[in-house]
Amino acid sequence: MTQETINWLAACRVEDAVENGGVCVKYGDEQIALFYFTRRNEWYATQNECPHRKQMALSRGMIGSTTEEPKVACPFHKKTFSLVTGECLSGDECAIKTYPVKVENGTVYIGL
Amino acid sequence: MNQKKVVVIGNGMVGYKFCEKITAKSNDFEIIVFAEESRRAYDRVHLSEYFSGKNADDLSMSTQEWYSEQGITLYLNDPVKEINRSAKTVHSHAGKMVSYDYLVLATGSSAFVPNIDGVEKDGVFVYRTIDDLEMIKSYAANVKTGAVMGGGLLGLEAAKALMDLGIEQPAVIEFAPRLMPRQIDNAGSQMLQSKLQSMGLQIMLNKSTARIEGEHHITGLKFNDDTELPIEMLVISAGIRPRDELARLCGLEVSTRGGIIVNEKMETTDPSIFAIGECALVDQMIYGLVAPGYEMAEIVAANLCGAAKQFNGFDMSTKLKLIGVDVASFGDNFITEPDCRTIIFEDTHKGTYKRINISNDGQYLLGGILIGDAAAYNMLLQTTNNKIILPPNPEDLILGSRGGSEPAGAGITALPDDALICSCEGITKGAICNSVSEDGCETVDAIKKCTKAGTGCGGCVPMVKDLMLYTMKATGKYVRNVICEHMSYSRQELYDLIHIHNLKSYEEVLDNLGQGDGCEVCKPLVSSILASLWNEMILKKGNDTAQDSNDRFLANIQKGGTYSVVPRIPGGEITPDKLMVIGSVAKKYNLYTKITGGQRIDMFGAHLSDLPSIWDELIAEGFESGHAYGKGLRTVKSCVGSTWCRFGLHDSVSYAIRIEERYKGIRAPHKLKSAVSGCIRECAEAQSKDFGIIATEKGWNLYVCGNGGSKPQHALLLASDLDSETCIKYIDRFLMFYIRTADPLTRTATWLNKMEGGIDYLRSVIINDSLGMAEKWEAEIEALVGSYQCEWKTAVENPDIRKRFNHFVNAPQEKDPTVTFEEMRGQKKTPEWTTA
Ligand code: SRM
Ligand SMILES: Cc1cc2nc3c(=O)[nH]c(=O)nc-3n(C[C@H](O)[C@H](O)[C@H](O)COP(=O)(O)OP(=O)(O)OC[C@H]3O[C@@H](n4cnc5c(N)ncnc54)[C@H](O)[C@@H]3O)c2cc1C
Ligand code: SF4
Ligand code: FES
Fold it and tell me: Nearest CA to B524 among A61, A82, A36?
């Protein structure tokens, strides 16, 4: 059986995350956007860089949904991305990386 | 059944339209289409939108399923090589041989490439197909400079496309002494030229190109006057050449200047062969537009089905899309006196030029030219084509009626039912209104599906929309204007509901009035209403993430991810001490400083995590937030006024400060700007503001609903010679009326433009209190004024809010390491965008 082992990064405590919004997590030289979609009781993580103009900004974006799909809108030009698949929902051909998230004993972990 | 076989050569816009028309009329034909391109027919007219996000599928005119359903055989990527007229067969490149009863040539045209030395070099393109655009796009990614050869309709479109692809100041090279020589006159060309130059195009006229230079790829152009232009890419748009090569080869009559000669039934010299679209020459004329092509398709389809239709010439009116400057010509655009009377209106300041040609008896509009503002194009075209009798002052047609009280939509109601609205598809006003009243279409998209109106060049879409709204109103329908999938209300309904239910947070509103999880449309909108109603600190827990990004961090985000800091400087007045505070704070945090257009100082380039400390220091020295990030009051500009100026009638600075202090922090559907001038010389530009005040001998004149921005509009006089208290009372009422009723992100100018009854109605509400709301509104403003707090003060004093400005949740002391700056004139600037 070949299964990739997931490396879990302890990102922050639940109470440090922003309800219905994002925070930015430092992982070495990388930046990861972590979203606490409190309304749906769901957690998502994506790259922090918006592929459109390469801006480190997605964690400051507004989250929401279209039909059922949870999404984040970049603060710069309001391009939206699926939090589940990372696909750009505003018709562009770019996509963002997404990561699994788990919460254990009040600590939020991002799977790398 | 005995089906006749029709072979169509070419699957462009017109070839496709022919298939659509003939299959709609009859099942008696078997249709086989040969297409040279690898894609199904697509919308060439909107080709440039390929660069602004549309893909080949969006542009496609129909689906593979459609062809199968209609029983049409479509061979893509397989051009016809030969027509054998005696055997009545065609032979394709891939070796197919198909016989026909009727043959329709819809081969279109190709870009004309002049015979210049070096046209074969890499980096030289034409602008006709999706393939061309793909090549241009990938080449442009690696170069910085470029030019377009040809200053006609398509050339200018191509130049704009180059600009959008990041080419710096693309040059337009035109052989003639002016731009768009076929559509507009000399004066119009000059106006267009200066507009385009101000947008960043270089215009080079009277230039004939001698040589394209470079080894394998283009490095520049050499002109006949011995000048040179170094460029890395070139798009040639020097006209079109009808594709008549097949017709020529099989002995059909073609013109020496190009084009397959046809009669008014689109028959070639062989009665079983027709030519339609841009390859056909009818009456010595090639029609390079899609609407006449569609009409030709209709004529062949109808005649094959037994009707007797003729092509009687076609209107060549055009409107240029996309370039950012409106340009249109219609009817008989070049006719001059004494054959007509010409009225010309020119405003070099605004860059508009309008010309209308009127019959000598003053009864009819014959044609005209519009540059800089073509809003009236559809109406004027209709007036020309329907021979509508002109009003006594025909100049109103281009100047607009200056009373401002004409109800919206009066223009379209005057049109007869058979007025042609969509000339591409031949759809009349009657048919559009019918689709609304009989078939229940309530969106422009529904009307497009139902009638096809607006699916060609798209120029009539604004009129289709007006007709839709007008018909819906006339049939007593309530026109709904909802916010998004989560909130099925208009902004005004939502405002009232939130008020009545006393809701205080976004989540409460969503739970009580909405559905789903919300989105970037309804969140900021609801947040703005909550702020207008309750004026609580906008970052109160739970409401913070529902704020637009700039509101959420109480600062405007900039290129590179840093923020700007704009302290309020009421009326533009500032002490030397406070100037020094700004200087020292900017120096300490390494900020770029600039005097803004709003009479204050903007400090740019602050790290998110530095914002609270910067504001700490500013607040300690007596500064407050300038709300440069919020939809609310920005600045109240003032001129120096009677305290110093020899002409000043009153103290405009004191009054401006009073007004700015009164309304600061109040949130509205969009931002609000104001100004106070001390006399009619108007140095504070009050008439370009949402509300502007000008001193008179007797008091103040109050102007409302002015706007700068992309569609500047002068404010209108609401009341004159007011004393200071009454003036403020009227502004209170005006602001509350606007805050309650305007659509989201609608400035006061646009709000007034949409208001039925216009300024007269507004005046009756504000001054005569015709709605009986004045007292309530004044009280509401008083409550907002009373609950003002400096948001930044509250933010820096609250540790929970302060924490939100850290860049990293797991490394709170560290700044964003990806932020970098460059140096320029002794200050810093952001690096250029890097694109994906
Ligand atoms: C700084 C300044 C330009 C300058 O260097 O002078 C500026 C900068 C911006 N303007 Fe402006 N505008 C500035 C004066 C103006 C003016 C002139 C004026 O106010 O006298 C206008 C035209 C007048 C008017 O609004 O009617 C103006 C019309 C706009 C518009 C178009 C509004 C419209 O109705 O069409 C926008 C876009 C918008 O608001 O949606 C805009 C938006 C912006 C934004 C906020 C764009 C953005 O979202 O990032 C810029 C952000 C600056 C920042 O990061 O702080 N800015 N902007 C000026 C700040 C004035 C101030 O002290 O607050
Ligand atoms: C960038 C651009 C902007 C434009 N803007 C406007 C506008 O705003 N308003 C307007 O009215 N018009 C506009 N036009 C013009 C409009 O697109 C044309 O008038 C219209 O496309 C003509 O249709 P057609 O079918 O005759 O030719 P085309 O659309 O060119 O189609 C002809 C097709 O036949 C194919 N073909 C040729 N020879 C063969 C062969 N031997 N075998 C098989 N297939 C063959 C070609 O490959 C092509 O696909 C614009 C054109 C361009 C390029
Ligand atoms: S005009 Fe205003 S919005 Fe445009 S670049 Fe200048 S500051 Fe930015
Ligand atoms: S940088 Fe994110 S949308 Fe433009």
Answer: A61
The closest alpha carbon to B133, from B57, B49, B63, B200, belongs to B49
Distance CA B94, CA B112 (A): 27
Q: For residue A12, list its beta bridge partners.
A: A108
- Choosing from B743, B759, B786, the residue where a domain stops is B786
Token pair belonging to B478? 């309530």
Tokens of B407: 């109800």
In a domain, B253, yes or no: yes
**Residue B147 confidence (pLDDT):** 97
User: Cβ contacts (< 8 Å) between B555 and chain A: which residues?
Assistant: none
Q: Are B716 and B404 in contact (CB under 8 A)?
A: yes
For the purposes of burial, counting CB atoms within 10 Å of the CB of B308, is it exposed (0-12), middle (13-18) or buried (19 or more)?
exposed
- Specify the number of domains making up chain A: 1
In chain B, residues with a C-beta closer than 8 Å to the C-beta of A76 are 557
B442 within domain boundaries? no
Compute the distance between CA of residue B537 and CA of residue B170 in angstroms, rounded to an integer.
48
Beta strand B822-824 pairing with B827-829:
antiparallel
Please choose, from the candidates B334, B48, B353, the residue with its C-alpha nearest in 3D space to the C-alpha of residue B195: B353
Which pTM was predicted?
Answer: 0.56
The residue to which tokens 């530009």 are assigned: B685
In a domain, B463, yes or no: no
Q: Does residue B158 have its Cβ closer than 6 Å to ligand 2?
A: no
- ipTM of the complex model: 0.74
Is there a contact between A72 and A62 (Cβ–Cβ < 8 Å)? yes
Which tens digits make up the pLDDT trace of B345-373?
888 777 888 899 998 888 888 999 988 88
Residues touching ligand 1 (Cβ under 6 Å) are: B 556, 558, 564, 566, 594, 596-598, 600, 602, 628, 634-635, 671, 673, 707-710, 747
CA dist list (Å): B406 to B363, B712, B753: 22, 20, 11
What single string gives the DSSP state of each residue in B237-269? -S-EEE--HHHHHTT--B-TTS-EEE-TT-B-S
User: DSSP alpha helices (H): ranges in B178-289?
Assistant: 186-199, 245-249
Q: B287 CB less than 6 Å from ligand 2?
A: no
Shortest Cα distance, chain A CAs vs residue B375, angstroms: 28
Three-state secondary structure call for residue B585: helix
Return the closest-CA partner of residue B729 out of B692, B785, B774, B666. B774
Whole-number Å distance, alpha carbon B721 to ligand 3 midpoint, is 36
CB A16 within 8 A of CB B809: yes
Tell the residue number behind the tokens 């025909």, with chain if given.
Answer: B394
Instruction: Specify whether B177 is located in the same domain as B68.
Output: no
**Residues B211 and B173 grouped into a single domain:** yes
Q: Which residue has the tokens 């964690």?
A: A59
Q: Compute the distance between CA of residue B18 and CA of residue B9 in angstroms, rounded to an integer.
A: 11
Residue B103: domain span: 4-110+242-304
- Is residue B695 within 8 A of residue B677, CB to CB? The reply is yes
Q: What is the CATH number of the domain that holds B288?
A: 3.50.50.60
Q: Does residue B169 lie in a domain region? A: yes
- Residue B614, pLDDT above cutoff 90: yes
Length of chain A: 112
Q: What's the CATH number where A71 sits?
A: 2.102.10.10
Residue A5, pLDDT score: 77
Alpha-carbon distance of A58 to B300, in angstroms, equals 56
Burial class (CB in 10 A: 0-12, 13-18, 19+), B341: middle
Which string of DSSP letters, residue by residue, matches B69-126? Answer: HTT-EEETT--EEEEETTTTEEEETTS-EEE-SEEEE---EEE-----BTTTSBTEEE
Contacts A73 to B, Cβ<8 Å: 519-520
Tell me: do B177 and B61 sit in the same domain: no
pLDDT tens digits along B455-465:
777 777 778 88
Cα(first)–Cα(last) distance of chain A, in Å?
20
Strand pairing category for B318-320 and B601-606: unpaired
